[in-house]
Design a protein that fits this description.
By secondary structure, the chain is mostly beta strands. It is built from four helices and 65 strands. The strands form seven sheets. The protein has a 43-stranded parallel sheet that branches. Strands 51, 53, 55, 56, 57, 58, 59, 61, 63 and 65 form a ten-stranded antiparallel sheet that branches. The chain has a three-stranded antiparallel sheet with strand order 2-4-5. A hairpin with a 5-residue loop joins strand 56 and strand 57 (716-720). The radius of gyration is 39 Å and the shape is elongated.
Length: 823
């Protein structure tokens, strides 16, 4: 039976979660697809048994790597070792399998290429690394070695590889195989044509040796518009070394345009100078899967290049391979499981950007883009720069020490060339344009943030980002925001965890019709969550809700709202931070704050400035400083009344109780006694009148009667004039104007705080009226904070100004709950 070789690969290295190698560690071997353990392991000589397969020791040239070994009669295995969360397995085919398959395939083919009919079997269907050879509609196989390529790293192998690509073209397509070896490419670019599978086998290395792009899909003089160019391509495997430190001119590695149905899979691109690893330009149905992009050289002025770029056919300066330049964008693009970072080659850096675009034309966005499961490390700018992309889904990305995370941007109106179509001589639009349909979820960013936020969506007043979902974002130790939104509408930001961000954790400017919910902020160099509508279209209609968020440890306010209309803060918990728990300022209108807890803040828990209008708040467990310029609207919770009673309250009136609860009192007041009835009042309420209502009994022979307003400590704040002997007929509302306040004679009083106040009523008469209300308590009403009878033997009203007047403690004799109100 044949012997198969395994191990000995630099890729087969065990590491722990910190990236450290694990030397001298036991590894099991199982037959692939069955789980059966293989114990008959042999040294590389194929004779000597191995007692226990282990990784190389610490003093080895490759510590932690699996040593080479052989197995008889097993062509594919799975390694297994015990990881942190249980057994870990990965697949490897025997080293001889691919070569044997290739040799048998070549024996059945003419050396100039051809087609095998029937079924080829090498212990089963012909495979390379466990995958069927070909995969396209054609079955012709062209081996570049058979056409003259040496793979010795010295000879210019580009002509031989091009011969194979031409043969596939001339025969309607096929598979071009590049066996293991180092292929020096000095005659460039290579050109690939439709229906071709370029398959670089493991160990194949293509090295650029000329200042030209390595691979293009088509010819310079072709004129294939839209998506009609050379497509139905698979480019698979191999290391594509751009050798940018020695061949320093800026070039692409792989440049693909005007085509449909392109797959690039499992390639590694190294050390690109100036431009991009892969550019897809005017391409539909593109798949870039499991590719790695390591190392970049900036020749100067190219600090924005992407490892993978999406572009449109705008001009030769944007795509130099071929035309036509018809402004065709990309659509239906999947980028899955790719890695972008540094190569470690001296003289190189990590990439500036991972995936993105940096040019545009009006009305020509790229659309239907999916970026899934990619990893980025050490990038100086954005991991993903989605410039003029719509219908976008980005999920499950890992970022470490990158300048910025995911950036979505509408057309930048400050760039005249972007407002101009291909071939245009002047801008065709004057502003930006909207983008719609954005989903960003599952982003983990650790460190970095010197260039931008972990997630940043940026539109303009003339072009909003629309219909956006941002969720499950985790940012830790980031130098900017976790989430930043500018000119975004109809959006949700949810399940964000922001830990120790240098700037405001979740920051918005000019957003409208949005929800920020279920977010957690722990440590921020700025605020926790901001809603800023100043000088934006959202100023007149914000409609943003911040709900169920927890904020702690910020250097500024927990939640801060500037300007805007219809902003709600609900069920938030803000604590142990510098500044206000919740701060609302700068002409905000129709604000609701409810169910919010603030504690351990260096300033007031909830602070509302005097330019804020039409505030509605209730159920907040926090100290409140409300200086809003119009009265705070009471709520069912704050007024102690139910929803129906609240609806029935006349406009501009604050009542001691709802009219719907009232009838004649069962106990008449006592002549000459001042009674205080509790009432809830907002801060900033301007009061001019005090009213009470009597029932079927009129006042008989009154000598003095007047009404008053008191604070929660019973101090008189305002009073009416003494009505003396004026009649008070049965079943009559008596509304008396305020005549004196703590400031002296005045016609109105403005409340200074929100909460408990009292309305006072004193009647001295032979027969007192029975007051309409909820009744009275004969005893017990005097318990703190109390209500009911206070001073006795009174007649004329006391002076309010000067040293003032404070009613006596509640006597607890008659707790009168009369119906009264202020307006």
């Amino acid at each position: 039976m044949p012997m198969y070789t395994y191990g000995g690969s630099p890729a087969d290295v065990l590491t722990n979660t910190s990236g450290d190698v694990i030397p001298d560690y036991p590894v099991l071997v199982r037959r692939a697809g069955t789980g059966e353990q293989v114990t008959a392991l042999l040294e590389i000589d194929g004779v000597t048994p191995i007692g226990q397969l282990r990784t190389n020791p610490a003093d080895s040239d490759q510590p932690g790597a699996i040593r080479p070994f052989k197995i008889e009669g097993v062509s594919a295995i799975e390694y297994e070792y015990n990881g942190a969360s249980g057994p870990v397995r990965w697949y490897e085919a025997g080293r001889e399998v691919a070569t044997t398959a290739l040799e048998r395939a070549l024996a059945a083919l003419p050396r100039s290429g051809g087609t095998v009919t029937g079924t080829l079997n090498v212990q089963g269907t012909l495979t390379v690394d466990g995958a069927p050879v070909g995969g396209l509609e054609r079955s012709a196989v062209y081996d570049v070695r058979q056409l003259g390529a040496l793979g010795d790293g010295v000879t210019d192998d580009a002509p031989a590889i091009q011969s194979a690509l031409n043969a596939a073209r001339d025969n309607g397509g096929g598979t071009v195989l590049v066996p293991p070896g180092t292929y020096r490419l000095a005659t460039l670019p290579l050109r690939i044509y439709r229906n071709t599978h370029l398959r670089c086998m493991p160990g194949a290395r293509l090295v650029r040796a000329a200042a030209v792009t390595m691979l293009l899909n088509g010819d310079a003089d072709q004129n294939l518009p839209g998506y009609s160019g050379h497509g139905n391509l698979v480019i698979e495997g191999g290391t594509w070394d751009m050798a940018g430190t020695s061949v320093t001119a800026s070039n692409m590695c792989i440049s693909l345009g005007h085509a449909s149905d392109i797959t690039v899979r499992g390639i590694t691109v190294l050390d690109v100078p100036g431009y991009h690893g892969i550019e897809i330009n005017a391409v539909q149905r593109a798949r870039i899967i499991g590719c790695t992009f390591l190392g970049y050289i900036d020749p100067g002025g190219r600090d924005f290049s992407e490892a993978i770029q999406l572009d449109l056919a705008k001009g030769s300066a944007y795509f130099g391979g071929f035309g036509p330049y018809d402004d065709t964008p990309c659509r239906d693009v999947l980028i899955d499981g790719c890695t972008v970072g540094a190569s470690g080659t001296p003289g190189t850096t990590a990439w500036p950007r991972g995936i993105g675009s940096h040019s545009a034309s009006p009305g020509r966005p790229h659309h239907d883009i999916r970026i899934i499961g990619c990893r980025f490390e050490g990038l100086s700018q954005w991991a993903v720069g989605a410039y003029t992309w719509q219908g976008l889904n980005i999920s499950n990305l890992q970022l470490r020490n990158c300048g910025g995370g995911v950036w979505v941007r509408t057309l930048d109106s400050s760039k005249a060339s972007h407002r101009t179509p291909a071939g245009g001589s002047s801008p065709t639009i004057t502003g930006s344009q909207p983008l719609a349909g954005i989903v960003i979820e599952g982003i983990t960013m650790t460190g970095g943030g010197t260039y931008g936020a972990a997630v940043e969506l940026a539109g303009e007043a003339t072009g909003y980002v629309q219909d956006a979902t941002v969720g499950q974002i985790t940012a830790r130790g980031v130098g900017a925001q976790a989430v930043r939104l500018e000119h975004v509408e109809d959006y949700t930001v949810a399940d964000v965890i922001a830990h120790t961000t240098a700037a405001t954790a979740i920051s918005t400017l000019g957003t409208r019709r949005g929800q920020i919910t279920d977010c957690q902020v722990n440590g921020s160099g700025g605020a926790g969550v901001t809603v800023d509508s100043r000088a934006t279209p959202a100023e007149t209609g914000t409609s943003v809700t911040v709900s169920r968020c927890q904020v702690t440890g910020t250097a500024a306010n927990g939640v801060h709202v500037w300007n805007g209309v219809h902003v709600t803060i609900a069920d938030c918990d803000v604590y142990d931070l510098t500044g206000y728990g919740v701060q609302v300022s700068t002409n905000t209108d129709r604000l609701t704050v409810r169910g919010t807890t603030a504690r351990g803040t260096t300033l007031t828990g909830i602070n509302i400035t005097n330019t804020v209008t039409n505030v509605r708040r209730w159920g907040n467990s926090a100290t409140v400083a409300d200086a809003s310029s119009t009265p705070t609207l009471p709520s069912p919770f704050d007024s102690g009344q139910g929803a129906v009673e609240e609806v029935m309250r006349p406009a501009g009136r604050w009542e001691t109780t709802s009219r719907m609860r009232c009838g004649a009192t069962s106990t008449a007041p006592v002549s000459g006694t001042l009674y205080l009835v509790p009432i809830w009042l907002p801060a900033g309420a301007v009061l001019s009148n005090i009213s009470f209502v009597n029932g079927a009994t009129a006042a008989a022979s009154p000598t003095n009667w007047w009404f008053s307003l008191h604070d929660s400590g019973r101090k008189m704040l305002a009073r009416t004039a003494d009505q003396g002997t004026a009649a008070w007929a049965a079943n009559t509302v008596k509304t008396l104007p305020i005549a004196q306040t703590t400031a002296g004679n005045a016609a109105s009083y403005t409340t200074t705080y929100e909460g408990l106040h009292y309305l006072g009523i004193m009647i001295k008469a032979t027969t007192l009226p029975n007051l309409v209300g909820e009744g009275s308590m004969a005893t017990g009403a005097g318990a703190t904070p109390g209500w009911g009878d206070t001073n006795t033997g009174m007649s004329t009203p006391p002076t309010v100004s000067g040293s003032g007047f404070t009613a006596a403690p509640f006597g607890g004799n008659v707790g009168l709950l009369a119906y009264g109100y202020v307006s």
